[in-house]
Design a protein that fits this description.
Indigoidine synthase fold, 44% helix, binds pseudouridine-5'-monophosphate, binds manganese (II) ion
């Protein structure tokens, strides 16, 4: 027998055994791959505080010293804030077997870890999706398959606006993922103040969202659900402004020959520089807001148990 197993922190496992609310968080967004320093620490602090303010236990996922972890405490935060290797779901086994020092988990690997630990709600910024030009590059984030597969609700501000959003939504439909807009008619576009693609379904309240989660459970659907919340209005960026910057960023990535897993971190960084960090401010705001929403959902689901 090998000893490859997921290490769930005492705090998280106690909360789960007592049916207390727990929300999983990924670590890529908090690493240098997702946000520049010191905004990454601010994001981690604000997201964690948002969960704690609702009495929810944060369960940050990561690979540390070759161990897949669910729930890391504050003394270990510096590890994920520093240099890290991106760990999608397919890299998890690799990172464990090869004992990677610090693996930053993406949406897909976090969902696997959350599901194995028995956590029902996961919060992130914007999910990955179908990249523009995917018809030739074939670049489709493994986030989508993982959202469909794992029995976890992902709370997000839609998908990153530099993706091909209509195709991302089509793909989610193909995978049979319920896509719900909380108080919004349009699929949120990450840091953009208002999207313009109609969302498949709108819900008004957290209670309604929880009811949909329970109905899916009762029907024996074992996959995930995508709950979308727009970036708070005061921090959202203008669509026309972002469209222009995105076009330049993608052009630049293309010219530099950036492909595969490197595309998302490269484009995020380019946009942060080009917007003089307004995109970073929006990213922090939406990540915190998603954590607040996820916290409310986790509380609602835990009450009904
Ligand atoms: N959203 C952010 N920042 C990020 C990401 C998403 O605001 O860094 C990361 C997430 O970890 C997501 C990943 O799972 O990008 C998707 O990468 P790719 O497109 O290579 O699958
Ligand atoms: Mn990709």
């Amino acid at each position: 027998m090998n000893s490859f197993q997921i290490r769930v922190s005492d705090e998280v496992s106690t909360a789960l055994s007592q049916h207390k609310p727990v929300v999983a968080l990924e670590s890529t967004i908090f690493s240098h791959l997702g946000l520049p320093s010191p905004a990454n620490l601010e994001a981690l602090t604000r997201c964690t505080a948002a969960l704690l303010s609702h009495g929810v236990v944060p369960a940050i996922t990561a690979v540390l010293d070759g161990v897949a972890r669910v729930g890391i405490d504050e003394s270990e935060w510096p590890l994920i804030l520093g240099p890290a290797k991106k760990v999608g779901e397919r890299e998890l086994g690799l990172a464990v077997a090869q004992r990677w020092a610090v693996g930053a988990t993406t949406v897909s690997s976090s969902l696997l870890l959350a599901a194995r630990a028995g956590i029902r709600v996961f919060s992130t910024g914007g999910i990955g999706g179908v990249h523009r030009g995917a018809e030739t590059s074939g670049d489709i984030s493994s986030d989508l398959g993982a959202i469909a597969q794992h029995h976890v609700v992902t709370v997000c501000a839609g998908a990153k606006s530099f993706l091909d959003l209509p195709r991302t939504l089509e793909y989610l439909e193909t995978l049979s993922v319920p896509v719900l807009g909380l108080g919004c008619d349009f699929f949120p576009e990450f840091t953009v103040e208002r999207g313009d693609i109609k969302i498949p379904a709108r819900v008004e309240t957290i209670k309604e969202l929880a009811e949909i989660v329970r109905a899916n459970d009762a029907l024996g659907r074992n996959g995930g659900i995508l709950a979308c919340v727009p970036v708070p209005k005061k921090d959202g960026l203008l669509k026309s402004f972002m469209d222009e910057i995105t076009a330049t960023a993608l052009n630049d990535a293309n010219k530099q020959g950036i492909t595969g897993a490197a595309v998302t971190p490269y484009v995020l960084k380019f946009i942060a520089n080009a917007t003089h960090d307004a995109s970073v401010k929006a990213n922090l705001s939406l990540a915190e807001n998603n954590a607040l929403t996820a916290a409310q959902l986790a509380v609602e689901l835990s009450i009904a148990q």
